[in-house]
């Protein structure tokens, strides 16, 4: 596997090369145009990062990131806590620290007659991912609360997000359940969001903001470099805040969004900032356990593995 590697100097040099050699190097794998890359780009001028240096390795996709992390090619990637818990159940040492609570959204054309989940009856639904996509499983659970069998009532089209986007643009499907940034791009083109991942969870009684994605890394590695890792997370949060509040900082990462028009750039920024993690503690972790139980039952253990509960150590806390 080949990686495009470059270094971002994130420190205020104090005593030349001897000081730089003492910094902890954090090898982090990200997709070149993923939102994590936006945050890392904004992090460059953050003086809080004085005791670490990032080695950024560009990855082709999420699966490549998982392979890189498990093989030891990188120290950290962005992934989800369901995967972390499943690995921990097999004896792995990985853990999770929240990055974003933005997930997916159900989107329809602006003039669509679809205004509720029940309106999807006998419609064609494009679904990004596969049968085990978390948003798809949870949307089915929400429909079940209304005595509506969504799985049996729609014509399903599964595919990668770009393919699903093309399907709705060419009227081959009536609605799409897709990843948040693809949904945001559609919204900027006059499509309408019916419900997002947070709304689905609220409908299922989960009122806490539970992160959908986070930084994943080995707990043993983080314990060896605790100060640098914690400083990285603090710097990362500050960088995200700057992207959401400082127009000058946001303008620097616009090329990474691959959006040429202002409406799309604006909508991407809005949805990205809505995913900020404001609270991360016991209530959110207990809510994650409830979501885990639902997903285990909905997927018949296929998504979570056979463990009845989230594995201890799944979540990392800054101390």
Automatic annotation (TrEMBL):
Keyword Membrane assigned: no
Short name of one Pfam family: NMT1
Cleaved signal peptide residues: 1-20
Residue ranges occupied by any SsuA/THI5-like domain in the UniProt entry: 52-240
Keywords: Signal
Protein name: ABC transporter substrate-binding protein
Origin species: Candidatus Methylobacter titanis
High-level lineage: Bacteria, Pseudomonadati, Pseudomonadota, Gammaproteobacteria, Methylococcales
């Amino acid at each position: 596997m080949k990686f495009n590697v470059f270094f971002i100097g994130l420190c205020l040099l104090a005593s030349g090369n001897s000081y730089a050699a003492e910094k902890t190097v954090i090898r982090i794998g990200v997709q070149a145009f993923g939102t994590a890359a936006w945050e890392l780009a904004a992090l460059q001028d953050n003086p809080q990062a004085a005791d670490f240096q990032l080695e950024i390795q560009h990855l082709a996709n999420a699966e490549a990131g998982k392979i890189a992390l498990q093989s030891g090619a990188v120290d950290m990637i962005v992934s989800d806590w369901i995967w972390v818990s499943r690995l921990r159940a097999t004896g792995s040492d990985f853990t999770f620290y929240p990055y974003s609570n933005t997930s997916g959204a159900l989107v329809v054309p602006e003039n669509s007659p679809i205004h509720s989940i029940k309106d999807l009856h006998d419609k064609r639904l494009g679904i990004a991912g596969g049968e085990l996509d978390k948003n798809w499983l949870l949307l089915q659970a929400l429909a079940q609360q209304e005595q509506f069998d969504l799985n049996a009532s729609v014509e399903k089209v599964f595919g990668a997000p770009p393919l699903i986007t093309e399907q709705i643009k060419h009227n081959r499907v009536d609605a799409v359940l897709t990843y948040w940034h693809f949904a945001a791009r559609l919204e900027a083109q006059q499509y309408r969001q019916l419900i997002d991942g947070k709304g689905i969870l609220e409908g299922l009684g989960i009122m806490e903001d539970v992160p959908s994605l986070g930084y994943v890394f080995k707990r043993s590695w983080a314990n060896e470099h605790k100060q640098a890792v914690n400083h990285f997370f603090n710097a990362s949060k500050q960088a995200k805040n700057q992207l959401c509040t400082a127009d000058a900082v946001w303008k620097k990462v616009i090329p990474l969004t691959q959006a040429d028009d202002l409406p799309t750039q604006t909508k991407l920024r809005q949805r990205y900032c809505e995913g900020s993690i404001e609270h991360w503690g016991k209530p959110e972790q207990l809510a994650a356990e409830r979501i885990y139980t639902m997903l285990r039952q909905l997927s018949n253990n296929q998504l979570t593995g056979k463990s009845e509960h989230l594995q201890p150590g799944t979540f990392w806390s800054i101390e």
